[in-house]
Amino acid sequence: MAISVSKKKAKINKRVEPKELSFLFSSFLAKLFFRIPTIVLILILIFLWSSSTTIISGKVVHICVSSRKLNNLYCISAGTEPNLDTPSSLLNGTSPSILVDTKHTPSNVVDVLLKESSRLGIPTPMVNESSTSTNNVVDDLLKESSRLDIPTPIVNGSSTSTDNVVDVLIQKSSSLDIPISRVNESSTFTPSEKQESTSVSVNSIAGNQILAFRNNMVKSGDEELEMAYNDVEDQLQVHRSWAATSKNHTTCDGRGIYVYELPTKFNKDLVAQCADMIPWVNLCKYFSNDAMGESIQKLGKGWYQTHQYSLEQIFHSRVMNHPCRVYSADEAKLFYVPFYGGLDILRWHFKNVSNDVKDTLGLDLVRWLESQKHWFQKSGNDHVFVLGKISWDFRRSSDTKWGSRFLELDEMQNPVKLLIERQPWHVNDIGIPHPTYFHPQSDDDIIMWQLKIIKSNRKSLVSFAGAARPGAPENIRSMLINQCTSTKDEECKFLNCNSGKCDQPESIIELFMESEFCLQPPGDSPTRKSVFDSLISGCIPVIFDPFTAYYQYSWHLPEDHRKYSVFIDQEDVRNMKVNVVERLMQIPAKERENMRRYIIYELLPGLVYGDPKSKMEKFQDAFSITINNLFERLNKLEL
């Protein structure tokens, strides 16, 4: 059923001023918890106003909470601003984090207060004012959390201990059929207009383990990180539920794609600025040939010098040639907005301009879309944007000049955003593969490459192509380089990207083709294009941060990461608890071979973007998988 909403002017989410928040907060406490001793309320207020963030991955990912500093629960990666400094107190984990709903309403403090009262050993305050007993606290809490759509409070009504809190919550929520609300994207749309997929039923969680981190990547006992990681995993389960089950779509009935014909300032004019976007490189040669770049004869047919920021143009070319493209918006099910937002960001990265200038084009785009009737018919849920940079570059915080606020606009909350790196707590941010150098035209091109790399002579056990990050002491790259270069008999090969050799795709691909394992530590942000370069070369990636791949690409990588990668916790490397090369030597040859065969024959076709003129029948490439899943998402939202 089509949903009509009133047109609104584009605006950036307004932050709640400390005075307003303080007033609401105080009124709420006075009304509901007047029986609690004053000293307890003071302690809770101090805690809430002082809590800020919890670091997940050193300087790479930060978990942020609602406070006077931020109005949305989202992370800022080290890549959002060069030489980002992080207070040592946060790195030491001394500033606890509480995950609350992103809407600034007084009711949202209920779950926070309940958690804190349990932690401090004080009587659990009741949600229901009229109740003076704590015997039925769980029932009241579950009722309130369902009504207010806030995360279900986790308490044990008969004890200040939280040892058996999971059992209480599972029992109550299952019997009452109450979903556990997850992180909601900030929006000014009414709740009825927002899609319901941001809530995940407790019955859908594998094994009914609410706090047990399912991939065992968080050290036991760190409950806050377990909860945060599980929130991310629940959102990935939503993404996987949108995956199309059928691989063969022989008809376009009900699958029309409409491509907006935007004013050229939103795409073509940005490409025309390729010569001076980045001071030290001319991008024009990379944006030629449908943004695949110049061909690489040495690597064979289908190989090009593709730039990592070419995704927007590559995707646009493919959509324009899609067999289900329609030229009447009335016939469309899916609406593609060809805005090159990544190039818009890139052109301002290294120029001294105001934040207003950086935000102008995104605001202009939203105003333009508001003049289109189909923008409103499903509150934007049937619109898709492809952005060729990481999500953080579009979510500028108030204390930095890096990036824009495009994805923080109210109007941008319901559409799907396809990005090379997603924001882990926004369900409509969906990660899709970085463009690689390989763009096959046919099934035969893929098969020939598969046969070549399965037979490749892998002379080295391990390789690493990258550079150290001397300005980021928490980054483990320097430690990995030291471990790699200290090996004997060329067990590990290091390609120093400071030498300029990484600018030559042949050097990288040949190194990976000769290696069993490829180290993939985070760089300026958690994700790396190199992960996909290693996979299409048959080199098993070694991942040190789950946000590098496992929490990004749910449509293109399997949930069981052990099928195609090795995970080594970067904290173990940082604390010198593990020698990575020695650890990898312990993996049996048969296990390596099984992983490599899975990568080459099962994953590889779906990780590359075919040539815009490609005709494939046997395989689905990354683009086809994405388009089919977008249609499946819309089908399920309509149920």
Features:
639 residues, alpha/beta, single chain, disordered N terminus, six-stranded parallel beta sheet, 9% strand, five-stranded parallel beta sheet
- Total strand segments: 15
Low-confidence stretches: 1-25, 48-213
Lateral arrangement of strands in the main beta sheet: 6-5-7-8-9-10
Strand content: 5-15%
Continuous helix count: 20
Q: Give the overall average pLDDT.
A: 75
Tell the overall outline. globular
- Alpha-carbon distance between the two ends: 10 Å
Helix residue percentage: 25-40%
How would you portray this structure in words?
The protein is of the alpha/beta class and about 650 residues long. Helices cover about 35% and strands about 10% of the residues. It is built from 20 helices and 15 strands. The protein has helices at about 20-30, 40-50, 90, 110-120, 135-150, 165-175, 225-240, 270, 310-320, 340-350, 355-370, 375, 445-455, 475-485, 505-515, 530-535, 570-575, 580-585, 590-605, 620-635, and strands at about 55, 60-65, 180, 200, 255-260, 325, 335, 385, 415-420, 430, 460-465, 490-495, 515-520, 540-545, 565. The strands form four sheets. A six-stranded parallel beta sheet has the order 6-5-7-8-9-10. Strands 12-11-13-14-15 form a five-stranded parallel beta sheet, with helices on both faces. The protein has a two-stranded antiparallel sheet with strand order 1-2. Helix 14 links the parallel strand 11 and strand 12 (about 490-495). It is globular, with a radius of gyration of 25 Å. The model is unreliable at about 1-25 and about 50-215 (pLDDT under 50).
